[in-house]
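Technical annex, item 7. During the second reporting period the consortium partners agreed on a shared format for inverse folding records so that results from different sites could be compared directly. Each record opens with the tokenized structure and is followed by the designed sequence. A conforming record, contributed by the partner at site C, is shown below for reference.
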């Protein structure tokens, strides 16, 4: 696996990979875990070459968020990617992504605004801007993201459609189902911040979500079911719930009841200083990326 840190070298390396066939990109912020490696394997099954980017993007962190403390472990991440047969690691310094004078922001309205967009103002502008840049830098035929960040995936696909992106096309942006621990907790780089006690308590999140989905599927009214979900989380030890919403899987517009279109349950809650997010399909369609069209 080759590692490059400069755009000029990246372009040469990708041009050379392209002679073998399709190139896939898996964008990450490092601190890799099994969830990321699952994305890499999915990419490997779809393309001749796999490029992984590791860039902790300052633009998607708010002023009171954990940019400084975000885990950075490039040597260990490199080893993991090498073992997965990744062809190229793109690990640019901040100045290669945001050179002096950088003045452009990609902002996707609508789908960016509720849920995490409401509790993390500017977050999705930072995500859309850096992903647009990473796409233009690497110019992959396809890209792979985790469904764990469902709203992020919806924002990126909307951006790709709206801007008529070509490398990759919106249809070539794939979502991969969330990888979970045995007790149902979604894998996340932030899980490492959980104390052993909190780690026990957080299994309540997927459990409460599954219960809510079963209740809504059985005909319970949405608003009281979501209120019961929040109460369950607070009882289990979460300090606050940023949101617990039933939403249209594609537009993320809040839903007061199930309709014809695929729906998703999305939750963000805090425990011991750590903010966890999760989402699940509600109507048995599995809410795959095709729902986002
Ligand atoms: O999901 C992430 O790791 C990041 O938000 C992404 C897509 C790499 C953009 O910085």
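Designed sequence (site C submission):
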């Amino acid at each position: 696996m080759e590692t490059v840190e400069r755009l000029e070298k990246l372009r040469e390396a990708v041009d050379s990979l392209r002679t073998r066939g399709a190139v896939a990109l898996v964008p990450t912020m490092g601190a890799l875990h099994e969830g990321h490696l699952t994305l890499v394997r999915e990419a490997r099954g779809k393309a001749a070459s796999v490029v992984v980017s590791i860039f902790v993007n300052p633009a998607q962190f708010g002023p009171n968020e954990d940019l400084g403390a975000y885990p950075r472990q490039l040597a260990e991440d490199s080893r993991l990617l090498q073992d997965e047969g990744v062809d190229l690691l793109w690990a640019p310094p901040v100045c290669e992504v945001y050179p002096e004078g950088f003045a452009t922001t990609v902002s996707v309205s609508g789908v960016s605004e509720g849920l995490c967009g409401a509790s993390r103002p500017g977050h999705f502008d930072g995500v859309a801007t850096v992903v647009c840049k990473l796409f233009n830098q690497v110019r992959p035929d396809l890209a792979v993201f985790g469904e764990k960040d469902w709203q992020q995936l919806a924002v990126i696909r909307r951006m790709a459609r709206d801007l008529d992106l070509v490398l990759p096309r919106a249809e070539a942006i794939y979502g991969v189902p969330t990888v979970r621990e045995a007790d149902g907790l979604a894998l996340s780089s932030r899980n490492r911040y959980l104390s052993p006690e909190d780690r026990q308590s957080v299994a309540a999140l997927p459990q409460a979500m599954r219960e809510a989905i079963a209740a809504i599927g059985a005909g319970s009214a949405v608003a009281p079911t979501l209120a019961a979900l929040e109460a369950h989380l607070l009882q289990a030890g979460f300090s606050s719930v940023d949101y617990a919403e039933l939403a249209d899987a594609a537009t993320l517009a809040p839903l007061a009841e199930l309709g014809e279109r695929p729906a998703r349950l999305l939750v963000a809650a805090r425990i011991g200083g750590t903010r966890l997010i999760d989402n699940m399909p509600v109507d048995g369609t599995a809410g795959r990326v095709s729902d986002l069209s």
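Residues 27-29, 57, 60, 127, 130-131, 149, 152 surround pantoate (CB under 6 Å). The chain is about 35% helix and 20% strand. All partners now use this format for quarterly exchanges.
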